[in-house]
Amino acid sequence: MASHHPIMTKEDLIAFLDREFPQIHMGGQSYFLEDIGPLSARMRMDYHDRHLRPGGTISGPAMMTLADLALYAAILGQIGPVALAVTTSLNFNFLRKPEPRALIADCRLLKLGRRLAVGEVSIFSEGSPDVVCHATGTYSIPERR
Amino acid sequence: MASHHPIMTKEDLIAFLDREFPQIHMGGQSYFLEDIGPLSARMRMDYHDRHLRPGGTISGPAMMTLADLALYAAILGQIGPVALAVTTSLNFNFLRKPEPRALIADCRLLKLGRRLAVGEVSIFSEGSPDVVCHATGTYSIPERR
Amino acid sequence: MASHHPIMTKEDLIAFLDREFPQIHMGGQSYFLEDIGPLSARMRMDYHDRHLRPGGTISGPAMMTLADLALYAAILGQIGPVALAVTTSLNFNFLRKPEPRALIADCRLLKLGRRLAVGEVSIFSEGSPDVVCHATGTYSIPERR
Amino acid sequence: MASHHPIMTKEDLIAFLDREFPQIHMGGQSYFLEDIGPLSARMRMDYHDRHLRPGGTISGPAMMTLADLALYAAILGQIGPVALAVTTSLNFNFLRKPEPRALIADCRLLKLGRRLAVGEVSIFSEGSPDVVCHATGTYSIPERR
């Protein structure tokens, strides 16, 4: 795979996600794009009441949303904001109970093809080396002319 | 697999989910348990602003939450509310754009073992025969004595 | 999804698979297409030494091959033999130890789109109702003109 | 995750796999354990007629077998040969057509719990940096006393 430099800056991507996914900020912003790089992105999810299950554990759906966003950001960073990428599959392994603090999602694209992009995401509790959730996802990319 | 009759009634399960997952009703209830049967459950998700992406499409995370809940309900129906089942993996295929109306999730358990339960979920737009999202999930079941 | 009648007969498909995948018959034929229907196919795998692990258990790879073939047959039945469908993802849940006899794989397509086909497969020991392996798969379909 | 040193040497593991999975060498050995490390293993699959589809492409089932073996080796390296680990799920993304040469599978365990082990595998054509197939797998581990 040739070296891929993103064509969107972090600031461009943040503005696009805010406009395109306003509902992820419902109740106060907790998802933040932290970094965008060649075939990669890093997202952060703050620890927030609405992501918790009773007892203070971060819920599965909150982590799934975070992984989907990180994959989406990494793909858009490479192909630009005009493209309408659609999630076609997502696979999650939940490995450990997250700590009661922010989560960091590191996404790496494994393939950026003409029609399909595939990537993986490792989610960590901030400051911990252990993966709490691992995801892979496939996105259908519209024809580019 | 021997015929399995659920040991929780629909009303028991609803009360348990309301108590255990109050955050799914944040902003008004939209997830409803519709039926519980032998190794099966049906959940409904009302069409609601907070599940939408711009343009009115139901978001992936809303469908993933629905599938996880349906699997969880089907398992608890069989093993009872004391058990602390934990999601260990979830796989999703997103097949079609859902219609702008309620979604129905039909869950069927493929295995209910001593340590692991595995099931599949087909999600439909209410009144339509086409699967919009298909999921499989694995749950770790605590030792039962 | 509109009702889909296959455009290949069972005999056409068998001839195509024999020609296209001769290596699956290496050591003697054990994979057989049993039926082809609208968005569906049934394959059989005979119980044979080369599919076994020590102790006589059918191996995971033998079941994975069977599921992949059943999905491939169901797709080709719908789109015809000219198409070069490529497997893009396969997910397996291994649920029970298979019996020491033939396996039957029932495949059902969940989506047959312009670019992607998605299906699920349930594998049973012949004569038993219990699913021993459940698979979902996604195939990329070349442009059709 | 604490640092984990394998308790089996590469030689021990090779002897165990040869004894436990003789059928993978049917027709001549093509799968080789190349390395074993902390929570990791590397397997190699030689380019061989019986792994090919017409045209010389390495088949999906050959890659799936390789990934399963690499995961199995990494787990046994950590827990020893007495354990009877059973594959409970495997997920594959097929990303590129492999080159007509040997494949290398790099496996990394993401979790080694009391009851479940989870790992990922990246498969490359030897000498190429591009992932041709990515897999994740879950294995059930018997009670250890």
Low-confidence stretches of chain A: none
Q: Which quaternary structure do these chains form?
A: homotetramer
Percent of sequence in beta strands of chain A? 35-45%
Q: Provide the CATH topology of chain A.
A: Thiol Ester Dehydrase, Chain A
- Radius of gyration of chain A, in Å, reads 15 Å
Average residue-wise pLDDT of chain A: 90
Q: How is this structure best described in words?
A:
Chains A, B, C, D: It holds the Pfam family 4HBT. Chains A, B, C, D: InterPro entries: HotDog_dom_sf, PAAI_dom, Thioestr_dom. The structure is a homotetramer of 145-residue chains. Chain A has 145 residues and is α+β, with helices and mostly antiparallel strands. The first copy, chain A, has one domain: Hotdog Thioesterase (Thiol Ester Dehydrase, Chain A). Helix content of chain A is 21%, strand content 36%. The first copy, chain A, contains two helices and six strands; from the N terminus they run H-E-E-H-E-E-E-E. In chain A, strands 1-2-4-5-6-3 form a six-stranded antiparallel sheet. In chain A, a hairpin with a 2-residue loop joins strand 1 and strand 2. The longest helix of chain A is centred in the middle third of the chain and has 20 residues. The radius of gyration of chain A is 15 Å and the shape is globular. The two termini of chain A are 21 Å apart. In chain A, 48% of the residues are buried. The model of chain A has no long low-confidence stretch (mean pLDDT 90). Chains in contact: A-B, A-C, A-D, B-C, B-D, C-D. At the B-D interface, strand 3 of B face strand 3 of D.
